[in-house]
Amino acid sequence: MSINGQAVGKSSAVSTVDYVGRVNVVFLADNGFEVLRAREVKSGILTTKFDVTDIYPEIAGYIPIKNDAVQDTGTFLPGNKTIIHRYRKGEKLSFKLKNLGDTLYISRFSNQSKLTVSFTHEDGAKVRLVGNCAGEKRILKEYSNAAHQVDDEIICQFPKSWINKKVDFYLEDDQHQMSNKETRIIKQERGPELSLPSKIDFGSHEIPLEITVCSLTRAEWVHVKDRSELDHYPWILKVREEHPLTNQNDQKLISRLYFKGNVINGENQTIGQDTGNLNLDLSQYLQLVLEPMDQIGSYHGELRWTLEDAPN
Question: Of 137, 252, 279, 307, which has the highest C-beta tally within 10 A?
Fold first, then answer.
């Protein structure tokens, strides 16, 4: 480029505006300014939020002394901000939940369960066993001046709102140190369950000349499936005559059914009491009594079965 015959050079200007703030996290021993490992840097756009509460890497032979959340959170500002994370010499919390599997069953009556735990920690330190379900935290037990190695069994009652949800179990101390987590799904045990045939049939019979006892035409099974995991209390199986055998003319055969020789009427009769499973073939025990004065007809009735499940 030339002006009035004179060559004129070109120049350009660059203006840089730094819109990024930085937070330096340094890791120091609690007894001075000994650096334990290389710093970590977080950066972000100015005025946005930062959070370094989780930046406590493991350092062999040291335990983090965690800051309060207000010290480890804030807003990115121009320049560099330094946050100190201190550590002290010691042994980290180690925790094991010995209830095996992914599921922790609780009582169907009390919502209680027995936790079997094992952990190690610093001698004399105060620690707490914690259960945490989706942010709802409960202290299950506190340990003061416990031994270095602890094996314990604890009876805990869990909220109904925790049933069928994942719960984290862990230890924590007054220095905000947290152990490893053990996760279980809380489930309420199901207890005994009753299954019945939809219909039972004594078949067709002629009016007898004398009292006659009839059995079912085929095997019909009553099953009790006991799904108890914790509370193995005896269940009680009862039966009563809800509607007596009645024909199309409204003629009835009242109290004509017998179980093991005992008449079935409108009152509950106990026919079984046990723990565990039951497989009962009614054709071996349930009988119908016919008499010479009975009237011809097709008779239908209804039995009411009840399975009672309650603690002693």
Answer: 307
